[in-house]
Amino acid sequence: MRDCIMVVGSGMMGSGIGAMSALAGNRTILVDVDESHVRSGMEKAMACIDLRVGNGLNTAEEAEEAKKRMETSIDMLKAAASARMVIEAVVEQLEVKQALFAKLDEVLPVEVPICSNTSGLRITDISGTCKKPERTVTTHFWLPAHLVPLVEVVMGEKTERVVAEGVRDELKKWKKSPVLVQRDLPGQLANRVFQAIIRESVAIVASGLASAEDVDTAISCGMAMRFPEWGPLKHLDAIGLNLGLAVQEAVLPDICADRQANEYLRHMVEDGNLGAKTGKGFYDWSKLSLEEDMAKRDKFIIEAVKITSELNRSV
Questions:
Q1: What's CA 92's distance to the chain center, in Å?
Q2: Can you count the helices (H) and strands (E) in the chain?
Q3: Strand order in the sheet with 4-8
Q4: Do residues 10 and 40 touch, judged by C-beta distance below 8 A?
């Protein structure tokens, strides 16, 4: 009987994905290469569930039932025998993912979707050796997967639309906000927008217009405060497209339009200043705590999820 969601790869992303699957009422199997990996993955998944309960995103009863639904396996083919949907969350290497998809494609019935959590690779390329690529699709969960609602559901060149729509509808049941991306392009959807923001942010610092701290503050305390319920296209409609057009004509000629990474960023990397992991990047991390900042980030996400959920219920 095909009654489970199989998550292949039980690391940071796979464990969070598995937790959300189980909380949605699915029997869920975390699969990895050995017992130590799946044991660690299960511990992470349980921590994800506990965090959601501790912050009021799920009830204790929901958590108790979810934990009962979670299983582990180091035998992927055996686990696949009961899978109705598979999500791959292994290392971000094309050859590894291609080999995994080819193996799954051989053993799974055509009606079982095979999904990849890839953040940068094309599902078209990942499924390139599959005999039935029409049932393959990207499901890019955003980190942290157990908190951020967004999942980008990306159609490959041969993906059947009905498959992608079915996966999207499944993820809606997981308290996710999936979006359907209809072309398989680098960066998918959200990363294309995010990279445009990063490009201009780096250019501003490089030009001396503002410091890294002030750029981040301007974004975090300005536009980002509106984004959970007020996206940029809704903003354009609200202010009037004629005003939006006038602003673009005035501003766009002067903003960064580089087709490659900024030299300022390139020089930082060449100098060995890689960010938090080396102690220095745009910030001096010897004076900061990455763990504390990540905790603050997660707390903000949690509160935003609560507020947006309440707003959606009141509509």
A1: 13
A2: 14, 8
A3: 70-73, 27-31, 4-8, 83-88, 114-116, 136-141, 150-155, 177-181
A4: yes
Rounded Cα distance, 305 and 63, in Å: 18
Question: 92: which 2 tokens?
Answer: 């971000």
Q: 213-269, pLDDT tens digit by residue? A: 999 999 999 999 999 889 999 999 999 999 999 999 999 999 999 999 999 999 999
The pLDDT tens digits for 103-153 are 999 999 999 999 999 998 999 999 999 999 999 999 999 999 999 999 999
Give, as one character, the DSSP assignment of residue 222.
I
Q: Extract the tokens encoding 212.
A: 């890294």
Task: Please report, as a single letter, which amino acid is at residue 121.
Answer: L
Peptide bond into 144 cis (omega under 30): yes
pTM: 0.92
State the alpha helices, DSSP H only, in the chain. Answer: 12-23, 35-54, 60-69, 76-80, 94-107, 123-126, 161-172, 190-207, 212-218, 224-226, 232-239, 241-251, 263-270, 290-314
Helix (H, G, I), strand (E, B) or coil at 297: helix
What does DSSP assign to residue 142? P
Specify the 3-state DSSP secondary structure of 180: strand
- Token pair 């004629």 in the structure block, residue: 242
pLDDT in tens, 258-286: 999 999 999 999 999 999 999 999 999 99
CB 146 within 8 Å of CB 19:
yes
Cβ contact 24:175 at 8 Å: yes
Please tell me the distance from the alpha carbon of residue 9 to that of residue 18, in angstroms, as a whole number: 10
What does the pLDDT read at residue 30? 98
Q: First-to-last CA distance in the chain?
A: 39
Please report the DSSP string for 15-84 in residue order. HHHHHHHHHTT-EEEEE-SSHHHHHHHHHHHHHHHHHHHHTTSS-HHHHHHHHHHEEEES-HHHHHTTEE
DSSP code of 208? T
DSSP-derived 3-state class of residue 225: helix
